[in-house]
Structure formats: structure tokens, C-alpha cells
Amino acid sequence: MAEMINEPKILHKAIHELDNVVGKERLVQESDLANLNYIKACVKEAFRLHPVAPFNLPHVTTADSNVAGYFIPKGSHVIVSRLGLGRNPRVWDDALTFNPDNHMNNDKEVVLTDNSLHTFLFSTGRRGCPGMLLGSTITTMLLARLVQGFAWELPSNEQHDVDLKENLHDLAKARPLSVIAKPRLPLHLYNTS
């Protein structure tokens, strides 16, 4: 959300997609997700720039291997830098800029659970994350509901952009996101009980 609030054009494009696919007379449902490629691209881009953890869990090689000209002996512990992959300027144009169009594929469906090593959202292989589909679906639904349901703005006493600096000890934002959410759908859609 913070990245999208900093980039109003991206936020408006996501709102436009939701209004066209879902409309304003009902809340987005899981069955709508297949048609919400831009929303899924926003989630995938957020995972790319702001992974849940800087590294994956360590793996141990079961045989001597050569990877990109490097010899890795059997029994070596190997970790992958999620930050390094997601922010690699040799893979991503303007690697530190939030750009959901990085994941749009000529009208093909955006897939959050692919195993591309350009973004390492979840563990992969035999011991991959069993909650990958559930986690990505819940995250996408949450973003879609927040974008569909509310107009977002910074408080008048805040600076012009959301501060995206991260904590030194983890990847969480250093300062909490402080925004104002105003309903943008008919009031009967908001469950107040």
C-alpha cells in the first residue's frame, strides 16, 4: 500500500481495474482474482521489492555442483538472497522503483506462484512452502479489498511521500504507515456489526 500511495498513477490504475472488473455494488471475491492482473502484478512487485525475509532457509547440496562457474562441494550450505534477486539491476530495469508493469505479460494471466528465480517469493522444490497458494491468495484479496473499498490519502501533517525506509534488523518499514482511509463504496457494503 505504501508504494502505491507514493505512486498515485499506479493506485488509480488498480482502482480502475477493480471498478471495471468488479464494479462498486459488491465487494471483490476470490473468483474475481483471475481477472485482476494489475492487482496481482502490484502484489508480485511488492513481494519483489519488499520480501518477507532477506534470505531463504538454508539448503544443503547433495552432490558436488558447478553453478555459474563456481564449484560448490557436496554438503555445502546454500542460501539465496531474496533482496539480491528482487533488486538486481541486471534483471530489473530501475530495480529500486515500484513498477507493477514488470510483471504484465501481454494480456496473459499474472501468476503469483511461479518459480522464477527473478523473484523468489516462496521456497521452491520438494520442500517448498506448502502455504504458497494460500498466502499469495490472501495477500491479493487483502490488497484488492483495501484498494476497492477505500480512497487513501496522507494526513495533512505528513510529508508528500510515505517514508519507505526499512528497519536495520528486519525488512519492516522503519516508521508505521499513517494514512487516512475514506470509504468509496456504498455504505451497505461495509459490515459494521
UniProtKB/TrEMBL annotation:
Its cofactor is heme. It is an enzyme of class 1 (oxidoreductase). Transmembrane segments: none annotated. GO terms for cellular component: membrane. It comes from the Eukaryota. Keywords: Heme, Iron, Metal-binding, Monooxygenase, Oxidoreductase. One of its GO terms (molecular function) is heme binding. PROSITE patterns: CYTOCHROME_P450 (PS00086). The keyword Metal-binding applies. Belongs to the cytochrome P450 family. This is Putative cytochrome P450. It comes from Helianthus annuus (Common sunflower).
